[in-house]
Amino acid sequence: MSTQLPVSIAAPASAGEILPAPVAATEKDHRIQWWLGFSDLGGNTLTQGALGIERMHLSIADEAFNILERIPVTRPVSEQVRVLHHGISTLCYRGVAGVGQILSRKLGKDKE
Amino acid sequence: MSDQHHKIAPWQRQVSAITSGFLGDWLEQRGNPLAVELQLLHRGRALNLARPQLEDPETTLVVMIHGLTEMETIWDFPGQPGVHYASELSPLMPATPLCLRYNTGRPIYRNGEELAHTLNSLVQQWPVPVKRLVLIGHSMGGLLIRSACHYGSALQLQWPELLTDCLYLGSPHDGSWLARAAHHSAGLLQKMPRDYLRVVGDFLDLRSEGIRNLNQGDILAEAKAMPPLLTSSRHYAIAGLLLKQPENPINLLFGDALVQENSARGLNQPGWQLTDTASFGGIDHIRLTHHPRVYQQLKEWLL
Asked: Which residues of B touch A61 (CB under 8 A)?
């Protein structure tokens, strides 16, 4: 039994990875291990946070675009603007999520 | 037993304890070093269970078990590091004070199983024959005691025979209203038609199995199982109340802020016969771990 990251916001390839087990080490190594663990958590938090905020942002924006869709004056361009807005937003959020993912993966490798 | 958590700064240990509480099972699954290991400590140092070495080991052991996201320092009286209920009771009993540190995000039954085996190693390897064992648990720590008792007795381990007293301080035997509120809120939000509300529900749902177990006070692998108390030991329950007037509706609603009085006394547990109970008005959930009035009560029961 374990904490399940919600499928809808969890997607990083690293989420299911098993990090290498800590080995017997010196005091300095323990500190480094701790920081690697902290950064691993930070990387995952960044990824999950960015993906979650992306979902929240886009769905709130959809509320506004749905209203613009119903107004005759804005209807002709609302869909194009929505696509553009969602595209740019998604790019930004996925970029941040990717950084988190890379951070976790890199640290996972470093632990080896 | 590793002592790696003593090789990092206190604030780092605190961060490990908090993250372990919220995501401990996930951290453990990933092999993340932030996951706290189950350890017994004596005067702040991890005990080598294979060969416990300490000055003047007593035949009575008092083990204190903290709650969710906490660490053993929660027991210290304010401004007095290393001074806690067990350290104060020890010269009077006399006894050796010990504290448990563990990953509070793991399912309670898994910690309970591990604690059962750890206590067995402890009494078997203790430098002198153990004659009396006392367990004091705060919040989730009390549930852990009951879980360990169940597995210890089911596996016919040695230590349950030595266990004379179990003291539960603000333990949510029937569950915590806050854990249930988080559970229901997450479920409700996840069913909402708007995605931004479902996201909030998903984030609320990101909590450890340990926290989920606090919904109903689950202590075994089987959900909602209610094992009886060990008949060979005395069992005491202490409840905290936010306000001094016991009948105040705030106390009835919130108890010590996290655990209601009825849950701390396990009123919904079938066939429970507690040796004694006490409620303390004006003492909240956290202060139950280091309050002079609670100490006086423990002293009265244990000496």
From this structure: none
Contact B4 A3 (CB under 8 A): no
Fold for B4-174+215-302, please state it.
Rossmann fold (3.40.50)
Which residue has 């950084």 as its token pair? A99
**Interface list for B 196-215 with A (CB within 8 A):** 196, 198-200, 202-203, 205-209
Write the ipTM.
Answer: 0.84
Name A78's Cβ contacts closer than 8 Å, sequence gap at least 6.
A65, A68, A69, A71
Q: What is the largest CA-CA distance in chain A?
A: 70
Q: Where are the domains of chain A?
A: 53-112
Q: Which two tokens stand for residue B246?
A: 């016991």
Give the domain ranges of chain B: 4-174+215-302
The stretch B169-191 carries a mean pLDDT of 96
Question: Residue A105: which pLDDT band, with cuts at 50, 70 and 90?
Answer: confident
Crossing angle for the helix pair A27-70 and A75-111, to the nearest 10 degrees: 170
